[in-house]
Every structure is written in structure tokens, then in C-alpha cells.
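User: Okay, second chain of the day. Same drill as before: sequence in, C-alpha cells out.
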Amino acid sequence: MRKLRIVRVFIRLVVVLTILYLIKLFAGDIIHIRSIGMEGTIAEGDRIVISKIHTGARTPITPLEIPFSDWIIDSAAYSDGVQFAPNFLPKLYDPYYNQPVVFNQPTPNFNPIDRKPILTARIVGLPGDTVTINKMDVAASGKLLVEPQGIQWPYELKVQDKFQEKVIPQLGISSYIPSSKGTYEALMTKDQATMLMQISHVRYAKVKWKNELKNDSLALYGKNRWSLFNYGPIHIPREGEELEISTKNIETYRPILENHENVSVEVEDDKVFINGREATKYIFQQNYYFVLGDNRANTIDSRHFGPVPASHIIGQPMMILYSYRPNRESFLKSIRPDRSFLSVQ
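Assistant: Same drill. C-alpha cells below.
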């Protein structure tokens, strides 16, 4: 009888874990955020719940893995011995502007798509759009997008001698450094800047563009004349769209064609050759999205790696489950109870 009871408990445990794993694959998941790209909305150290139903769950590309291992270690323990092409279940609704998404970073490496680094950002360009960035303004096909709350900008803060530095973190500003006497460089929202201006001994808080135009740590995607806050226009390909290709725009679309459309591209004598044949047009095989992080001056997004292909989309963040400060020796001291069970907008 005891053996039978153990067998029953084991079978029930297997059934429960199987159901939970299927939910993890096709409905939702828990993701550990290790970047500051969405700081202001999602912070480094957050554990977020994502919905795969909203964006359409992607079927496993590398199905051989140890279940739930990515919940314990930095990345899932898997084998790439078996790989499938990405397919998607029906989505709850179509993507929309400013929608936060979780995706695999679309940069070329030897890892399968579903094993590339995971990033979060907002969609600002839908398939078929032409995106332009001019400082704080982001436009999609000529339409100026509404700025969501929590967007952080690079500010210069000028204060008087009697100013108390402790005021800065009290307003929720976590990224700031003194650049010179009486001057700070800080990443903050417009609302935080407004509150600072109402505090005595603050001379001004203004956006600083000059030294933030280029990110020397990573080359920008597209033409060399573009910069972080003066970017585009760039057209975002749509599935089935036939786009004219020439030597004038091939360097913009070459990474997309080679890395995500899986075709070879060569340029000879002012002519473009795709898969060895001269081409003046190309029909794209999937949708693409232009994404930006909320931490606009200190993030890696489509300005660096280009439009995100639909095959790389994982899901939509819905809630911050819990959070802890990275790089803290004491686990108890690192816990951030104020960042638990928060919805992501």
C-alpha cells in the first residue's frame, strides 16, 4: 500500500509539472530582467510575469532542455541537437504603439533564436511604418506618438551650495552622478525634473543632448549620420511587402536580409545581388518592429540592432512579481518590497 501511495503521489507530481511546463511554453512565463533598458518602468533585478497569449506563443525552436532550469540559473540548460523553425499560435490582438514586449536580441551569433539574450522595450514602429526620432519626439509614418509615463531622459542638474543630495534618490531617481561642483548628470522622467525644479537651491534641470548623441559602446544601426536622438527616417518592413532595393538603401536592409531573411547579399558595380541574382526589389517574409527602451539614453534597442523580426518576439510583460537590487551581498537587504505585484503599463 505504501508503494502504491508513493506511485500515486509521483504520478500526480508529474502531471502537475507537465501542466505547469505547458503553461510556461504556451501561455506565460517568469523572466529575470538583467538590463537597464526599461529603467523607469522595469528595473534591473525585477522578476516579471509575461503573457505569451497576447503576442501569440512561439513554438519551441530548441525543445530539448531541462524544464524550469532558466528559473534557477541565468539561462536554460538545453541542447541544440534538435531545432525547428519558429511558428506562432494565434495572438490575442495585434501589436500596438508603445506596447511593451519581451524579445530575443536580434544580433547575429551562434545561438538559436530562442537562446539569444532576452531584452525588453516598447514598440514604436509597426510593420510598414517609417520611423523618425527627433530628440524627445518619436513619429511613426508622420504621426507623433504619445510619450508613456516612466520614460527617462539625460538631464543636467545645476544646484546651489545648500542643496542636499539626498533629495535626488528620495524622488525615485536612482541613476545620477556629480559631474562637477554643483552639477549632476541624471537619468529622470519629465515629472521628476519638474519636482526638482520646485525644490529650493535647484537652479535648473534641463535635458542634455550634446554628449548623448553618440553611444560609443555600440555602433548605431543604419546610416552613420544617425544618432540616438536624431535617427531615421527608416522604413520598417512588412510581411509580403515588396521593397525597392538599391545601393542607396542596401546597407540599411542588409543585416535584415542576411540575418533574418536568410539570403546572401553582394554589391558589385553599383548593383545589388541577392542569392547571386541581380535584384532591384525584395519581398519580405515576415513582419518587423522598431522598439525603444524607456531609458532612452542608456539602452540597447532598435537604434543599435535594427528592427526586431516577428520570429524573435516572446511575449508581453504584465506584472512585476518581485524585485531585488543586483550586486548586493545580503539577500534580505537587496529585496525591494515596493516593487512587488506591480502592473506593467
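The longest strand covers residues 313-323.

User: Thanks, on to the next one.
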